[in-house]
Design goal:
Layout (H helix, E strand, L loop, with lengths): L1 E4 L27 H17 L2 H4 L6 H9 L20 E4 L2 E3 L2 H11 L6 E5 L5 H7 L4 E6 L2 H13 L5 E5 L12 E6 L8 H6 E11 L6 E8 L5 E9 L9
Parallel strand pairs: 1-10, 4-5, 4-7, 5-6, 7-8
Antiparallel strand pairs: 2-3, 8-9, 9-10
Amino acid sequence: MIERIPSRGIPNMPSIILPVLCCFALTGTAAEPSDEREGLMEEVRRDIATLPEMLDEERLDPRVDEAMSRVPRHEFVPPEARDRAYANRPLPIGHGQTISQPLIVALMTDLLNIDGDSRVFELGTGSGYQAAVLAEIAAEVYTVEIIPELGQRARETLQDLGYDNVTVKVGDGYHGWPDHAPFDAIIVTAAGDHIPPPLIRQLKPGGHMVIPVGNRYATQQLMVVTKEEDGSVRTRSVLPVRFVPITGGH
C-alpha cells in the first residue's frame, strides 16, 4: 500500500526551483576550475538556506556539501559547454539529454540520506555527474543508462577520474538492477508518470527513493518515496521540477 503525504506548504516558491534557475556568472578562463566550483557551491548553499522546508535543515548535509565541492563538473560536460560548467543550471550533453542543475543534484542527493555504507541505484546515468557525487559518499553505486553513447562516455569519464565504486550498465533502468538489490537508496534522474514498481521492490526497508513524477510535457513533482520496515510505502512531494522523460518499452 502506498500512502501519499501532502506536499508541505511552500508559499512564494522561489524562481530558482525550475530548470532555468539563476545562473552563475563565469569570467572566462581566468579562474581555476576549483575556484569556479567553490563559487558555485557558495551559490548552492545560499539557495539551500532559503529552502529549509525541503530538507528540514537550513544547510546541506556536510557529506553532500563536501562531495559536491570535490566533483569536477567540467569533466562531465561536452567541450563546447565547459565555459558554462560551473553555472548553476542544466546543460545539454547530447542526444536530447542534460546534465542536471547543481542545486537539484545537491538537493536530491541530500534527500537520499546516504552514508559510507550505502548501496545506491541510479536510473539514468546521463553524463555521470550525479553518479560521481553519489560515489563520493556511498560505498557502491550502480547506474543504468539507456543511450549507449552516453553510457559509454560516462563509464570512461568515471573510470578516468578514479570512481572505481561506480558500475555503469547500458540498458533500461526502469527494471532496476535485481542482481545488486536491495538498495539503501534509489535515485531517478528522468521523469515518468508513475513510480516504477520494480524499483519499489528493490528498495530496502528503511530506504529512500527520490524521483520526479509527472507528465513529460509539463512540470513534474520531485517525490521522496520511503519504504517502511513493514514494506509499506509513503510518498512526499518536495518541489516542482522539470526533467527529461524516462524512455524505454514500458
